[in-house]
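Structure first, sequence second, as always.
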């Protein structure tokens, strides 16, 4: 059996310092890499193209970017990689080895920092995935292309697009969490504080689960940021 074709979709906005590393982390195993630029005013577009990606433009938030890239992709698997996240070697093998019953999933969340506090965050993410089957976008979500189409894909909402999409995937079948690590930059925790950022994320998730509008949550998120 031939290896599945994997399309990698990377949403980006003013990520000129990170985008090339993200592309290089997957370029050997991806059939295609699509960067969807959200209106950057730096050199993100130029650097992504130079690194070998196909670059598309789509404003309207990350959900809109992800959906735009997914609908342009042609692979058997669609993998959604944040611009500040790197996948370690072996990720494509892990993805290709998944049984047919698996419709999607995410990789092992790892913060790219030696600080011990991040090990606690990583443990919390593993527990959340084990108990609730709820990975976030910074774990490099993946899905079979036909499942993406059938479940409606990423909603075009300004926040929590990954949580909403995972809920759609779960209704279609089994999720898997391969051992390959997704190394995510620590920059957002370093900028706003480890505890404050973690508590803010939990508060946003709780508010979304309680039915609060993603538009209102996005406004609160931007004010706090």
């Amino acid at each position: 059996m031939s290896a599945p074709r994997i399309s990698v979709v990377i949403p980006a906005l003013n990520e000129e310092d990170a985008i090339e590393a993200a592309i290089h982390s997957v370029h050997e195993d991806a059939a295609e890499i699509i960067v969807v630029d959200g209106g950057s005013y730096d050199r993100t577009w130029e650097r992504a193209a130079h690194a070998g990606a196909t670059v598309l433009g789509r404003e309207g938030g990350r959900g809109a970017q992800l959906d735009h890239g997914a609908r342009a992709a042609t692979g058997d698997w669609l993998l959604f990689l944040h611009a500040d996240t790197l996948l370690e070697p072996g990720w494509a093998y892990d993805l290709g080895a998944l049984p047919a019953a698996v419709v999607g999933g995410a990789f092992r969340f790892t913060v790219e920092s030696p600080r011990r506090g991040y090990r606690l965050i990583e443990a919390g993410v593993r527990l959340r995935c084990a108990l609730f089957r709820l990975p976030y976008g910074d774990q490099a979500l993946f899905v079979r292309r036909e499942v993406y189409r059938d479940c409606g894909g990423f909603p075009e909402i300004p926040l929590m697009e990954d949580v909403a999409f995972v809920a759609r995937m779960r209704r279609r079948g089994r999720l898997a969490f391969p051992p390959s690590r997704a190394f995510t930059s620590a920059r957002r925790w370093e900028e706003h504080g480890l505890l404050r950022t973690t508590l803010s994320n939990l508060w946003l998730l709780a508010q979304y689960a309680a039915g609060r509008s993603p538009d209102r949550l996005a406004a609160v998120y931007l004010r706090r940021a």
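Margin note: The beta strands are 6-12, 32-37, 54-57, 77-80, 85-87, 102-105, 108-111, 141-144, 174-176, 181-184.
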